[in-house]
C-alpha cells in the first residue's frame, strides 16, 4: 500500500471536496507532519474548512485532550446541524 500511496498522493488526487472538511491535528504529531498537512489544507477547496490544532497533543488529540476535543466536536456538530435545519 505504501507504493500505491507514494505513486498516487492524495494531494494530487483530491483538490476539491463538496462537503465540509476539518483537519484535526496535535501540535506534536510526528506521524503526520503538521506543516505538510497545513500546506495541503491551504490548497484544498471545500465549502467550509478548518484547520484545528490541539496545542497539548501529538497524533491522537481525541484521546490526549478529550475535553477540548469533545467541546470542539459538539460545537461543530451544533453549527452544522443548525444549517441543515434552517
- The mean pLDDT is 94
Helix-and-strand structural type:
alpha+beta
Characterize the main sheet. Answer: 2 strands, parallel
Query: Secondary-structure element sequence?
Result: HHEHEHH
Query: What is the β-strand count?
Result: 2
Beta-strand residue fraction: 5-15%
Q: What is the tally of helical segments?
A: 5
* Measured distance between first and last alpha carbons: 43 Å
Strand arrangement in the largest pleated sheet: 1-2
Radius of gyration: 15 Å
Helix content: 40-55%
Judging from the principal axes of the Cα atoms, what is the shape?
flat
- Quaternary organisation: single chain
| pLDDT < 50 runs, ≥5 residues | none
Structure characterization notes:
The structure is a single chain. By secondary structure, the protein is α+β, with helices and mostly antiparallel strands. The chain is built from five helices and two strands; from the N terminus they run ααβαβαα. Strands 1-2 form a two-stranded parallel sheet. Strand 1, helix 3 (34-43) and strand 2 form a beta-alpha-beta unit. The longest helix is centred in the last third of the chain and has 20 residues, at 66-85. The model has no long low-confidence stretch (mean pLDDT 94).
